[in-house]
Amino acid sequence: MPAPAAVDPRLLRAFVTVAEELHFTRAAARLYIAQQALSRDVRRLERELGCELFVRSTRRVTLTADGERLLPYARAVLQAHDDLLAAAGRSRPLLVDLNSPGLETHREVLRRARERAPGHELMARYESGLTWAAGELLAGRIDVSFGRFAGLAPALRTGLEQQPVRYEPMAVVLPEDHALAALPEVPLSALAGETVYAGAGNPRTLEWTDLARLLFDGRGITPAPPAPLAVGEEEFQRIMARTRNPILAVVSFPPLPGTVSRPLVEPVPLSPVSLVWRKGMIHPALTELCRSAAEVAVERGWLRRPEGSWLPETDATVMGAHPMSRC
Predict the structure, then answer these.
(1) 121: domain CATH number?
(2) Keywords on this record (predicted)?
(3) Is the N or C terminus of the chain more exposed, i.e. has fewer CB atoms within 10 Å?
């Protein structure tokens, strides 16, 4: 059988990873794919090369003589492929929008990606909201952002890709002397009659304001009216001190002087976070960012929904329709 004119590097990477692990389950975990998909890739490569690469039994996996002979060549091809991608991407950094300084979910994923890809430059940006960032992504002014993908207009979503990262529990930020500040957790029912700020009037964060609207509906919670956008921590504190409105946030929202943050319960409302980038974008550091997001999500259990939690059905559908790693 003649050798193929070209071999997909993905198939070679599957072969090399299984050869290093000699275990399909561990190799699949390393590659963040299903074991069945990995087995299909190895079988496809064997068909294309016209030789058997592994001897498989119920107890062990071993390389055949052909597998031993081809392994160093496969490694050399993958190294050349990675070098080519690195050279292509070295001309500019990957611009990663973290929305706002201090959001720990986004920062942790970026830190892990920087550790995994020290040869690439990943630069942080702060666009304050996925609605605004989506336009910047489509225009090519940033490369990646985080946020609630289901909250974007359909016309924006068609030009973007997403990878689920976390169901982040939501919280409420309160003045230190607020009556609810004494509670370790705040039941949603305790917010009935309160006016809660959730970004109304901020055109950059429409997806967040919409999520709050869905959460407040039928619970007697009034969204705070639109207010001028407070830029900077000092201005944010000043506005909060004047209005004294509780603020809807996430549990990783950075602390502010004079306030306390309390998780919301009964039920636990969730803010769905995805990694988002424009369709067709190619950059070697994007792969590492996606893998890092998947890796951290597994380690932290970020994609396990707490029992009895609250999440809009549209968000559950969007998050569940995508595998954990899309890159």
Answers:
(1) 3.40.190.10
(2) DNA-binding, Transcription, Transcription regulation
(3) N
DSSP state of 269: B
Look up residue 172 and give its two tokens. Answer: 């409420």
Query: pLDDT tier at 100 (50, 70, 90 boundaries)?
Result: confident
Which pLDDT does position 226 carry in this prediction?
A: 83
- Give the residue-averaged pLDDT of 59-78: 93
Give the integer Cα–Cα distance in Å for 41 and 49: 12
Reply yes or no on whether the pLDDT at 73 is more than 60.
yes
Q: Which two tokens stand for residue 211?
A: 């999520």
Residue 115's pLDDT band, with cuts at 50, 70 and 90, is very high
With beta carbons less than 8 A apart as the criterion, state whether 288 and 120 touch: yes
- 160 and 26 part of one domain: no
By CB atoms closer than 10 A (0-12, 13-18, 19+), residue 115 is exposed
Domain housing 247:
169-265
> Phi/psi of residue 231, each to 5°?
-100, 120
Cβ–Cβ < 8 Å for 142, 97: yes
- Cα–Cα distance for residue pair 278/159, rounded to 1 Å: 6
The two tokens of residue 239 are: 């506005």
Q: Looking at residue 324, what is its pLDDT?
A: 55
Number of domains present in the structure of the chain = 3
Query: Whole-angstrom Cα distance, residue 160 to residue 151?
Result: 13
Q: Are 172 and 196 in contact (CB under 8 A)?
A: yes
